[in-house]
TrEMBL record, chains A, B:
Source organism: Apostasia shenzhenica
Segments for region (Disordered): 1-21
InterPro entries referenced in this protein's UniProt entry, alphabetically: LOB
Domain LOB positions: 23-124
UniProt name for this protein: LOB domain-containing protein 3
Organism lineage string: Eukaryota, Viridiplantae, Streptophyta, Embryophyta, Tracheophyta
Length: 164, 164
């Protein structure tokens, strides 16, 4: 192990991105194994962020994460790691519901917004009907007397209502 | 293993819930191990739903699920299993984003609803201002002539606007 560690320490890792000799990636460090050239974890779990891999390992297991990454094209691996880290952190924070808690919360938020939107739209329709009626009443009683009705409420409300 | 399997087969499992002798739970069946009395998986992974455990095992690993359940009080384990199954199924369906895809989709839906709601509320305010102005204009020109203005637009709009 001593020789392997020295080898790993003298090799640049895809994930470290720093100049000079890089340490083994966070995954290999935690798993106490040689961080070989082409290590599947190295580009996504740099040595300076050990908590990311520790959390993912605790929740999903290194073997499952490795298998999942290997089955994905290179271009999707970074996003997969981000989503795994997000899920794992949510599970550590809330062991019962994990990130399903966030989904439930967002769904409740959507229900609230939908009811507020339905109410606002119903109010707009109600105003349209009331003011259409008011407009006719005013036209019948006052328009002949003055002829200076400047605003057409029907036109105004039609524009306001059906544009949303 | 033969004797153990017979023992497991002749014992009722917490998760099976059926009358008569129950088979080992889905977890022990998949892991090819004895389903002992008090098996941590048995109440939540009945034999007649093998896919639930298979999916959770593939994504999280049996050992991680077992550890997680053991750390939770009994009353929370069923919810934890439900959320794990949900997450695991989402990850199998979408290996890159898992259930984070659902979170992103819900967040986009919330943004859309928030902008629709803001628009509807702005329309209500705009109508309020326009009709308040129209009401004053009509009052100035026509109310003296007839005196039969039946609707107070200000009152109507005040009621409509500030109740939402």
């Amino acid at each position: 192990m001593g020789r392997e560690e020295r080898e790993a320490g003298s090799r640049k890792q895809g994930g470290s991105g720093a100049g000079g000799p890089a340490s083994p990636c966070a995954a290999c460090k935690l798993l106490r194994r040689r961080c070989a050239q082409g290590c599947i974890f190295a580009p996504y779990f740099p040595a300076d962020e050990p908590q990311k891999f520790a959390t993912v390992h605790k929740v999903f297991g290194a073997s499952n994460v490795s298998k999942l990454l290997q089955e994905l094209p290179m271009g999707h691996r970074s996003d997969a790691v981000s989503s795994l880290v997000y899920e794992a952190m949510a599970r550590v924070r809330d062991p019962v519901y994990g990130c399903v808690a966030a989904i439930s919360s967002l769904q409740r938020h959507i229900q609230l917004l939908q009811s507020q939107l339905a109410f606002a739209q119903a109010e707009l329709v109600r105003l349209h009907l009331h003011h259409a009626a008011a407009s006719h009443a005013v036209t019948d009683t006052a328009a002949d007397a003055d002829g200076k009705m400047m605003l057409s409420l029907d036109v105004l409300l039609d524009h306001a209502l059906w544009s949303c």
